[in-house]
Every structure is written in C-alpha cells, then in structure tokens.
Design goal:
alpha/beta, Gyrase A, domain 2, Isoleucyl-tRNA Synthetase, Domain 1, four-stranded antiparallel β-sheet, four-stranded parallel β-sheet, binds arginine, ArgRS_core
C-alpha cells in the first residue's frame, strides 16, 4: 500500500506552495514554514517570522499575504488559517481530512509507516559483554538501546548487520587457560547437565571461581605467570589444545549470557556474536597496512597513530597504540580490523557503536585512523552512540556496598519481584503462574523503558520504585493504557460493537478526540526521526504522550455509552488504532504489551 501522507506533511506542502507563490523571484530564500503541533489550533507555522526579517518586511503583512494563497475551506485539507501574534499562522485541518487520514493508517498493517526510500546497510555494534566476566548495568544500556535501534531500523527497511563484539580475547585468557590445563576439573559441571533452571548462574559461578583462583596464582607464582604468558602465544598461534580450552570458557560464558538475555527478553543470535577473537587473523595485516601507508609509525617500540588535536594534560601527544612494544595487539587493532571487515567485506555504509561514553576518545581515534587509511571513505558514516552512566540513588555510579559493579541479573530479578507485587495487588484473583508471567513483562519492560525514555547521552538513576510505578512516564502506565483499551474492545465485541474499518467522517470530533487523532498521525514522523537521530527516547516520549492523550480522551469521551451509534463506532475506531500504535511502538522498543493487566 502507498505511504499514508501525514496531515503535517499535507499542510506543510500547502504552506510551502503558498510561500513560494508569494515570493516567486526569491528562489534563493529557503522558505520553511516551520510547522509544529499547537494547542491554539491544530498546527502553528512560525517560519514567516524569520523569513520576513531576512527580507526586511513586516511579518504580519507577509503572513497575511501567505494566508490569501493557502487553499482553505470546504473540501480542502485545511479548514481555516489565521495570522496570530507577531506573524504566526494558526492552522486547523478539516474533520474529513483528519478522519480519512486516520482511516488510511488504520487500513494499513504498517500503520502508514513507509519503508525508507533508499535503505542502506547498517552494521551495529551493541551488547558486547566480556567472556568470563559478569554482565553489569553498562551492558544493560548497550543491549537495550541497540536492540531498539535494530528493530526500528529494520522496520523502516534498513538492512542491519548485528555485531556483538564480545571481549573474548586478550592476555587474561592465557591465565585462565593455563590454570585449566593444570586443574582440568575446574570447569566440571559436577554431574549436572547444565542449561537447567539455574544453568546460567551455575556457569557464572564456575567462571568466577576459575577467574579468582587463576588470578591468585598469577599474582603469587612467577612460574605460573611465565606459563600463562606462553599460553597467550599458543592461543594466538592457534594451538589446538589451547583453542579447545578457550572454547570451553567462551561456551560457559555464553550459557550465562544466554540466561541474562532470556530474562531480559532480548534475542541474540549465535551467528551475530562476532567477538574480538574473530579478527585475530586480520591484525597483522591491519598493522602492516597502517605502517606501509605511513598512517602509523613506530614510537618507543610501539606502533602508534598521532593526532594534532589530541593531547594529554601536559601537552604531550596521546597516540592510538595499535601494537604494543611487546608485540601484543590492543583493543584498537581489533576495532580497526572490524571496520575493514564491516565496510570492506560486508558492505556496510553506516557503522554504529552503542558503547559507554567513556570510550569516546578511543572511537574518535579509531575512526580518524580508519579515515586516514581509507577504510572509512566519504560514503561511510561511523557514529559512536555514547551512553551515560547508570547511577545509584546516591547519584554516584551504581555500585554494591562492597564497591563492585552491580550484577545485571540481580537487578533484573529484583525488578521482576517488585513487578510481581504490583501485579498481584492490582488483581488478587490471579494464579501464581499468571502473576509470574505478567511480572516478567511488567518488570523487564519497566527496566527497559526507564533506560530508553532517557536521552541516551545522559546518566540516570536506577530507581526501581519509580520504574514500576503505575503513574508517570513509565512502561507500566503505557501497558495499562493498552490493557484498558483491550478491555473496552472486548466489552464492545461482547455486545456486538466491533471495530469497523472506516470511521464516520461527518461527525465533529471532541477536542480530546482531535488531540488523540492528531497525535496518532505523527507515528511515522516519530519513527523517521529515530532513524535519523538514533535516539529511541523520541519514540518513548511519543508513546507516553499517546497514552496521556488516550487517558484524557477516555475521561472525557464515553466510548461504549456515547450518544449515537456513529460516535460509538468512531471512538472504538480511535481506541483500536491507539492500541495498535501502542503495541507496535512498544514492540519496537522491545517491551511487551499484555492484553490484560
Ligand atoms: N567494538 C567495540 N569496541 N565495542 C565495544 C566493546 C565493549 C567492551 N567489551 C566492554 O564491555 O566495555
């Protein structure tokens, strides 16, 4: 089905035409009407003010001239347009245009959201925990934000390559593997088959034990330290036995990650887990190419890239170290190789990295190096989507009392427990299994929404009380709005009032219906702006406003007890489209909308 033209774009087009007609000889003057939603009328256009200023004209006069050229009245999209204030235009659209646009949206499975005209190939690097380590709140942000972006981009028709650049390589593996060769029983499952209820937790505790014991030996025993170092060399050289043990450690970690992802209700495909180790074979060549092209040079034995504008506090240059003086490759060599792979081999034209803001300098240097080397050419965009820190209630980075990072799994379990309380209190007749199912949807939704509704660059406080609250900007509020609509639709259907495809366009909508309808019409614009800015919080904000408009509508406009059959039909139609939009929007954020709450 053809894309549905939103009311804003229909109005915008008519205003732009009128402006062009008033200023025929002024082709060079950009005449954006600067349309936005308004409380005074349906829309307000502010663009004439700036234009009049540039032309040295009186804005109200110019506005009056434009108004004369705007087609308005019977049979037109715009029913009235007026000059207001210093030269704004207040615009009201016709009821017919409003309802028929919505009817078109409702008739479309995609709710009128078009596919991108020129979809590209985006490689997105997100959810990249580290093997043999815990997942903490930072990994929550990367996972949740990345997952939402993937869903939204794909919904608009973009080809998306997911990359989970997990930390599965490096010197610490020498220590872990060496310890395993000397204590082969260390990762034994003790008779259990693994993968069971607490398979994930059990795997993590075995890894923790392995980590602690090998670390202790590494720090106290010089001989072991030597053997661990030699083991790193065997690992990089691809020694069979060493690789087998490395795989055991990675697999064990994957069992744990999988358990966290399941709880988090996020799908991660095995094939997309392409960790640091995957680029091992490219590292030599990456360094050779950088050195040959002169992009990198040897400095104090290390292979470095220098930048004029990147200096330390004492004014000395801070280089990107691609290969250390001891010959070991760093994090940067891997990221540079990954760029060559993602652009050169996989054909990505956009590279996104959903990574902690603390790695900003690393990515700045890596991107600049890749540009100099020609691996990132003009047609490729590379963006570090930096996210802020999750804070505790004290406003400091979220830590346990012992000063350790808080385990993600503990937070998620606590969120589900809190949600169970809320769910059971709301409906005491629920069975235990029903409470458990809803609590998972509510609790995990709450954690995801709290993250996604905050602008990603900002820090936020992890406050479960606020997150699972029924009031305010929370996912529970949105889920309740959805469930309430479902209950209205069920009651309507029970008495024979089902949702009809077309509303009655001759009925004059109440103000609350108008506001809801106009907002429903903004869904595709919202998604477009998320794909342009990579800011999922715009969708969260849209959905929250949608639920608020619905709440007002529901308070002011009886649905099943409306005055006329036609009004009942129109309102059921609005309810249904609101529910479908909420459901779609929440799904794109990775949040469930249970039919009953
Ligand atoms: N391509 C990348 N460097 N991605 C980010 C990896 C994040 C890293 N594993 C961490 O936990 O901090």
């Amino acid at each position: 089905m053809a894309a549905v033209q939103s009311l804003a774009s229909l109005v915008d087009q008519r205003l732009a035409d009128a402006l062009a007609a008033v200023l025929p000889e002024r082709e060079g003057v950009a005449a954006d009407p600067l349309l936005r939603r308004s409380d005074r009328a349906d829309f307000q256009a502010n663009g004439i003010l700036a234009l009049a200023k540039r032309l040295g004209r009186n804005p109200r006069e110019l506005a009056a001239e434009v108004v004369k050229r705007v087609p308005a009245g019977d049979g037109e999209v715009i029913s009235s347009v007026e000059v207001s204030g210093p030269g704004f235009l207040n615009i009201t659209v016709s009821d017919e245009a409003l309802l028929s646009t919505l009817a078109e949206r409702a008739a479309d499975d995609r709710l009128g959201v078009p596919f991108a005209q020129r979809p590209g190939v985006t490689a997105i690097d997100y959810s990249q925990p580290n093997v043999a380590k815990e997942m903490h709140v930072g990994h929550l942000r990367s996972t949740v934000i990345g997952d939402a972006l993937v869903k939204i981009l794909e919904h608009r028709g973009e080809k998306v390559i997911r990359r989970h650049h997990i930390g599965d390589w490096g010197t610490q593996f020498g220590m872990l593997i060496q310890y395993l060769t000397e204590h082969p029983q260390e990762l034994d499952h003790g008779g259990e088959t693994g993968g069971g209820e607490d398979g994930g937790e059990a795997a993590m505790s075995r890894l923790n034990r392995l980590y602690k014991s090998s670390r202790a030996l590494f720090d106290s025993d010089e001989g072991f330290k030597e053997r661990a170092r030699a083991r790193v060399v065997s690992l990089q050289a691809g020694d069979r036995e060493t690789l087998d043990l490395w795989h055991r450690i990675v697999d064990e970690s994957m069992i744990y990650f999988r358990a966290v992802y399941d709880l988090l209700d996020v799908e991660i495909e095995e094939a997309d887990v392409v960790g640091e180790s995957a680029y091992n074979d490219m590292l030599d060549e990456t360094c050779r190419l950088l050195e040959e092209s002169g992009v990198a040079e040897i400095s104090q034995g290390a292979l470095c890239v220098f930048f004029d504008d990147i200096k330390g506090q004492d004014g000395s240059p801070v280089p990107l170290i691609v290969r250390k003086a001891d010959g070991g490759y760093g994090y940067a060599a891997t990221d540079l190789s990954a760029i060559r792979d993602r652009v050169g081999t996989l054909g990505a034209d956009t590279l996104l990295y959903v990574v902690d803001a603390r790695q900003a300098l690393h990515f700045r240097m890596v991107f600049e190096t890749a540009r100099r080397a020609g691996w990132l050419h003009d047609e490729v965009r590379a963006v570090h989507l930096q996210f802020g820190t999750v804070l505790g209630k004290d406003g400091k980075p979220f830590k346990t009392r012992a000063g350790e990072s808080v385990r993600l799994i503990d937070l998620l379990e606590e969120a589900v427990r809190r949600a169970a309380g809320v769910v059971a209190e709301k409906d005491p007749k629920l069975t235990e299994a029903e409470v458990a199912e809803r609590a998972a949807q509510v609790g995990i939704g709450a954690v995801k929404y709290a993250d996604l509704s905050t602008s990603m660059s900002r820090d936020y406080v992890f406050d479960l009380d606020r997150m699972v609250s029924l009031n305010g900007d929370t996912s529970v509020y949105l889920q309740y709005a959805y469930a309430r609509i479902q209950s209205i639709l069920r009651k309507g259907a029970d008495r024979g009032d089902s949702v009809r495809p077309l509303a009655h366009p001759s009925l004059t909508p109440e103000p609350a219906e108008r506001a809801l309808a106009l907002h429903l019409d903004e869904f595709d614009q919202t998604l477009r702006s998320v794909t342009e800015t990579y800011e999922p919080h715009r969708l969260a904000a849209y959905l929250y406003t949608l639920a608020s408009h619905f709440t007002t509508f529901y308070d002011q406009c009886p649905v099943l007890t409306a005055d006329s059959e036609a009004a009942v039909q129109n309102r059921l139609f609005l309810c249904d489209l609101t529910a479908r939009t909420l459901h779609r929007g929440m799904a794109l954020l990775g949040i469930r909308t249970p039919a009953r709450l």
